[in-house]
What does this fold into?
Amino acid sequence: MRRNRNVKVLATLGPASSSEEKIRQLFEAGADAFRLNMSHGAHDDVRAMYERIRKVEADLGRPIAVLVDLQGPKLRVGKVAPGTELENGQPFRLNLSHGTGDASAVELPHREIFDVIEPGHTLLLDDGKLRLEVTKTGDDFAETRVVVGGPLTSNKGVNVPDAILPVPALSPKDRRDLDFALSMDVDWVALSFVQRSADVAETKKIVAGRAFVMAKIEKPRALDHLDEIIEVADGLMVARGDLGVELPVEHVPAIQKSITRAGRRAGKPVVVATQMLESMIEAPVPTRAEVSDVATAVFDGADAVMLSGESAVGDYPVEAVAMMDRVAQSVEHDEQFRTALDAGRIEPETTTADAITLAARQVAETLNAAAIVCYTASGSTGLRASRERPDVPILVLTPVAQTARRLALAWGVHCVQTEDASSFLDMVIRASRVAEREEFAVTGDRLVITAGVPFGTPGRTNVLRIATVGTERPGAQE
It folds into this structure.
């Protein structure tokens, strides 16, 4: 099953889409990968969904990426009396220990917040609906002025945009969820509450190569350390919902573009997430603004676009995936798409692998080749080819099932699991057969093939071969 687009679709599973039949429908509608959200559902429910995904994968014969999204630390106020309303301009106190809150004070049971906030800092409650300005601090309290008031109810979230919180990205719950996810052999782990590269490094140390780690960029402080985070992470998610809480919403579109460009420069997949087709939770068609939002991410060269509630709890999960697929195809067939994509090309690093990959793109486009075929075990060669954003399809051949699944989130990559090549002749014959079977090429078409010699040695992309489909057969001279 070959997609007629390069950008990938990541769909969140939930009550509206957890059955095997629905998962199959979502994949056939265009979903390339599925997100399992650890903020909701017991481990047994998550495992059942994972097993259904793998059943669909086996039935359809295509690798499917599974991403587990860790919840991250949750900072919340305590209990609040019913009917509590904060008025603009009034004083309001936050206490480390407090009884039931009211319009004068509330409990904030997080000493780490009191350790870092200072007068002049902003605190946001209930996803930013209420805004407080800190006027005085102590070891176990903070006095504030209400800048934007409104109703306050129990256990609402707290955001601290002006400080790096001394809170680990992995909460005790996250550690349990991470161990559980790794026991299932998931392909990607999305890490919440990333503030600096050390957060990602800690998780990668635990993961130990068993999955790729995606850093969710949702905290303003992460933007201050973006280059260091990208260097450590395997991929990035632009978590626009949380960014829009802690930053002025008008800044988010430019931040989305800068994160997408930075990820592409590094050859790390970038997922654009949150509210892309939000109205389709309840409506069979999206708004025109939502369609434009998806189109912008595709024009910017994002590797994947994500559905959250639309596919997890919405009334139209399959229709939402199909809409995402149609919008992406429409954009990629527009004459302006290639111009926008080429404008973002980046200089290769001074390595043999990068030089070979750049040459493969140039040769393939010059010869109007049917496809670029990459042999890879670790997936690094496929990611390099994806970073080039070539104007021809990328067919990745790998002997490793998890590599094929991980690359299902990479732009333009069509992965097939097959044995590694054993010789130059086998390399060409195998590439030609797979290209024909997967409907990338027919007899007489040319392929540009990259691989590493000695064959079977990871991380040694050092060969480029131009081949014509159907001209080399077993028994021919090498």
